[in-house]
Amino acid sequence: MDGDVTSDTPAPRPVLTRARIVQAAVGLIEREGADALSMRRVAAELGVAVMSLYNHVPNKGALLEGVAEHVVAGLELEDDPGEPWQDRARALVRAFRKVAHDYPRCMTIVLTHKIDTQLGLRPAERALALADAAGFDGPTSVRIMRALMAYALGAQLRETGVVKTLDNLVETQAEAWAKLDAAEFPHVVALAPELASHDPETDFEFGLDLLIGALDALPRASRS
Amino acid sequence: MDGDVTSDTPAPRPVLTRARIVQAAVGLIEREGADALSMRRVAAELGVAVMSLYNHVPNKGALLEGVAEHVVAGLELEDDPGEPWQDRARALVRAFRKVAHDYPRCMTIVLTHKIDTQLGLRPAERALALADAAGFDGPTSVRIMRALMAYALGAQLRETGVVKTLDNLVETQAEAWAKLDAAEFPHVVALAPELASHDPETDFEFGLDLLIGALDALPRASRS
DNA sequence: ACGTAAGACGTACGTTGTACGTACCGTGTC
DNA sequence: GACACGGTACGTACAACGTACGTCTTACGT
């Protein structure tokens, strides 16, 4: 009566695999935060013993790398070389924004673990391709890529709250505002409402337009 | 003979204080990495028992916040309102670069822990002040601050190698280059030398000039 | 001189990552 | 069909971790 379990569609549950482990880890992190991730919790999530995980993952660090890999694999990088390069650049940076929004609590791990698959190179390739299409020479293209990456990264960190410092405390502790003396932080106090009201979308696009506009104004060999 | 120990300059060694604990933690992190930090190691560093730390720090999380606080306190934010705002903006963003260079391995912690002192607001205040000086209105100033922060953050993360992913693997694994097929990553392969040769200084300034130039070109109420 | 509060310390508990040995199970090879 | 074998699941065990709790020493106000 249990013979048909071995059909051509084996029930995915009992089969333990690296992909399933990573997925469970990602789910756990998104639900309870990166601190809550432990090999025991992941094992419990999958209904297996702790050490069974080590048949598919050498250690916890490798699991975290797997998580980072999984997240960047979620980058939707469809590209239409026919479009103007400005729009392609926007789409690229926005793809970053999307994954960061989809996996907010995984971002810490993505940022602190390297990705040794070629997946990590896809964004770089895209950025270089469109810089090339825009008519920039090699070295400049590399710098453009790095500047775009830097902005995409930083903006996303701020928005998802991975970076707790800087101006993020603004919205959380309303009572702290009272203790600020306007003498030391006049502009911060004066612009309190603007600082408190988050409109990440336009904030993000503002900086993005700034950068792309600057790139557009840059001299280059061939104009489109 | 030990009476003069209680002079006006008490020997800093035996006196256990929060500042000394934080400093030891920072030193340990910079020497051995953030993973090596543990309450026991810090205590050993200071030659005290583990639980003695808890008289000055409620828990490890608070210690990490202290570390983050210490690092941002190192921001050298001298400012001359007389200078053109472009130069002031450059100085501000470069201050970020400097601390990130001074405490590279602490950056992970700085980024993932909030700072509840007013120290965290100093950069924001500076950015808003110079945006104001440049003649931008309130909401725009806030956006400018956020864009500058985003770039400063992202650029520094890339440079210090906190972000292991993206294009950082490029320089480390020279053998990986061979496995890249030029069909999938034509631009990456073509620009390999440029990608490998790191000139962080000019990379950083390139993006910074891009941003500030774009700001300069932005319409605003009062021109300087 | 004495009570009191603060700080340094030791012990102990629960949780973590993982090294190691064991048991099962499907797949060639005779 | 019997059998050895490689891969996988599992349980046990250990060192290191964060920290709650109780104790002891010490400095100080009275």
UniProtKB/TrEMBL annotation, chains A, B:
Pfam families: TetR_C_1, TetR_N. Keywords: DNA-binding, Repressor, Transcription, Transcription regulation. Residues 38-57 bind DNA. Residues 15-75 form the HTH tetR-type domain. The keyword ATP-binding does not apply. SUPFAM superfamilies: Homeodomain-like, Tetracyclin repressor-like, C-terminal domain. InterPro entries: Homeodomain-like_sf, HTH-type_TetR-like_transc_reg, HTH_TetR, Repressor_TetR_C, Tet_transcr_reg_TetR, Tet_transcr_reg_TetR-rel_C_sf. The keyword Transcription applies. PROSITE patterns: HTH_TETR_2. It comes from the Bacteria. This is TetR/AcrR family transcriptional regulator C-terminal domain-containing protein.
